[in-house]
Design brief:
2 domains; Rossmann fold; 27% helix; single chain; 6-stranded parallel sheet
Length: 413
Amino acid sequence: MKIAIAKERRPHERRVAATPDTIKRYLQWGFDVAVESGAGEAASISDAAYVEAGATVGATRAEVFAGADIVLKVQRPLAQDSGDDGLSDIPDGAFLIGLHNPYGDRDGVDAYAARNITAFSMEMLPRISRAQSMDVLSSQSNLTGYKAVIDGAANYGKAMPMLMTAAGRINPAKVFVMGAGVAGLQAIATARRLGAIVSATDVRAASKEEVQSLGATFIMVEADEGDTGQTAGGYAKEMSDDYKRRQAELIAEHIKDQDIVITTALIPGRPAPTLVNDDMIASMRSGSVIVDIAAEQGGNVTQTKPGEIAVTANGVKILGEFNLPSRLATDASALYSRNVMNFVELLVDTEGKKIDIDWEDEIIKGTCLTRDGKVVHPALLPEEEKAPEPVATEDAGSDSDSASETDSTEKGA
């Protein structure tokens, strides 16, 4: 059995899909592991570290992928004719495991089927307890929430905590987090640790206790009667137009007094919903900062410039940086690679040291996009081919978020 680790080539991507620690485990399970030279360089992992762990380092992508049963990536490959990061080097019939953005890149999924690649999408994991150790959305969103606060503080021209000095008192910064999923909760916790006064909002009524347990104030309008604001899987859902109007009025009144605003709402495969409009931005003080986690999908803020730091006419900075977890590449890679390793264990008889897949396992069924030259994931099939939704047999847990990351509901808000 052979596992191949590709070097990521997409812009803004510094992570790698395996570390020396996870490679040691793969070797114990009977795999040979080949790593493309330079794959871990941006995550501070040298080729020598991979060799020391027992992997073979190949100079070219084609050499590394030759004969591979499983290919591990972070980002999905580019289109088949896109050179260095395309599908052409992936062996026919291989398993391809990574973040595939199936709703946003359906053509890519069809290309996997055409190449007879069995693709598993890590962001499609079902929300069940048994899958938590594989949950890349949560692990990466934790780092996203942390990094958002650090970036916001770095671009804010004042101190975060209250400081008492002989020259007088410095008041603490006020931080407002919009969305209390995994990224939002980590942002709240980080801002609190830095000494800020923190408030947060979310459409899910159940988020109130989580937000308050972290020492933040919960800002929310009353939902329509009987509406919990979330799906059965624990994700935030899209609310009624009347709710959105009332929420916008509340946010507009609250946001004008905030120093740092962090927005976290993502809807996979669709443009990010607008949370902060021009009037809200105009009401904020000069020097305030907005960190838009959803910039890669157009942004939650009307004046976000994806990939840039924009400064508005009234002096508000809007950070639209791409791929925040990748900017903490060493830790992000360590977490991601362990998530993937735990998933790969489902595919392997570790005692018999052979690939042995239970295709009826709900985790396997929930993540498999393509198999035997066909698109097989129920969410991607035409309506007439979709089977009835199965009844969940396990508790989805309370750590609802995103990402990157996923399904058709808001991940971070």
